[in-house]
Amino acid sequence: MTKTQFGLEEILAKELTDLGATNVETHNRAVSFEGNKEIMYKANYCLRTGLKVLIPIAKFKAKNDIDLYEEVRRIDWNEYMDVDGTLAVDGILKSEYFNHSQYIGLKTKDAIVDQFRDKYGRRPNVDVDNPDLRINIHINKDDCTLSIDSSGESLHRRGFRGEMTLAPINEVTAAGMILLTGWDGKGVYFDPMCGSGTLVIEAAMIAKNIPPNMHRKKFGFESWKNFDAALWKKVKDEAIAKIKKSEATIIGGDSVFKVIDIARENIKRANLQDEIKLNNIRFEEQKPPAEGGISILNPPYGERLPIEEIGAFYKTIGDKLKKDFKGYNVWIISSNIPALKKIGLQASKKLQLMNGALECKYHCYSIYDGTRDPKKLKIQEQENEENK
Ligand SMILES: C[S@@+](CC[C@H](N)C(=O)[O-])C[C@H]1O[C@@H](n2cnc3c(N)ncnc32)[C@H](O)[C@@H]1O
Description:
Layout: E1 2-3, H1 9-19, E2 22-27, E3 30-34, H2 37-46, E4 52-61, H3 65-73, E5 86-94, H4 101-120, E6 125-126, E7 133-140, E8 143-149, H5 171-180, E9 186-191, H6 198-208, H7 229-241, E10 247-253, H8 257-269, E11 276-279, E12 293-297, H9 307-324, E13 328-334, H10 337-341, E14 349-355, E15 358-366, H11 374-387
Parallel strand pairs: 5-6, 5-7, 9-10, 9-12, 10-11, 12-13
Antiparallel strand pairs: 1-3, 1-4, 2-3, 4-8, 7-8, 13-15, 14-15
Helix pairs in contact: 2-7, 3-4, 5-6
Bound molecules: S-adenosylmethionine.
């Protein structure tokens, strides 16, 4: 089972299928699949839109903490870790039978350490940050799934992020946003409000077919008892051999000098300085390459600003797009729906995504090159009238 963000399930399912996983099925914020250890290693190294790869080891029913404790104790934990190892348990709860996810985590941990204590007279220690074995207990009503977490730290932590800007987007969301546009990694990719550079970095990795987690220092499965170092090396070598020369022109811009500096540092850390051009220019003054392409904007959402103010900014964005972005498919993500309406263009696609805890719309505006469809223009004019 691979966890992801809401709205990226189909993209993740395709990624898993491309890696060779079988029985791939989408669920809410997750995709289940079957595969061997090699697929599990590949999934951790190569997935752009996966947050965690969990391996289910037991499914059972429990309606109270005693049942839960007994069921967890029935598993032979020696198979998964040694008494001298460390563990951590994450609990996820959607059930009226239990009232605290931390509590179910605690009960699960107690059952495991008690089993070791009975057998050896001593117990494994808890290490929340860097355990040898991270365990996940998921309870939906009375359906419990116990999994071991092969990723460890969430896979959105690619391993090269340094300083943050105010509102960096999660790397998994960023990669998903790019893949949702259908961009094939060639031609122009333009992010004129690039912030710390998350989207341009993900775009460059897609263009070069770089495994996104190449720079991570550690994955959960590396401290498992069944870790196969030779297989892991093979998976990494094969993925690295598939890195290619970029055929893309990737450009990021931002109006704030300090922000561009942070983006430059992050890009350098990801070793992508030759793939991405940066400019410190206001969006209003940007001149996108004439050949057209894909542009993604993650503008400030201005949730706390009066709609007149943030709406005026979004209207400026729309006016600029109409004027200078002909030949572009421009995708805009925002949680501010009234402001988004002020763009004043008819969206050709409307998707929903989460940016952290914020429910967002993700709209595509196809900016036609000169000849516009008069029927669409009419609808658009009507929409503009309604939104005034
Ligand atoms: C929500 S943040 C983008 C975050 C980015 N995706 C990341 O992951 O770091 C919006 C960015 O738009 C920039 N911005 C705001 N107004 C702008 C303008 N008029 N022109 C260009 N950039 C602007 C801000 O400086 C900020 O970095």
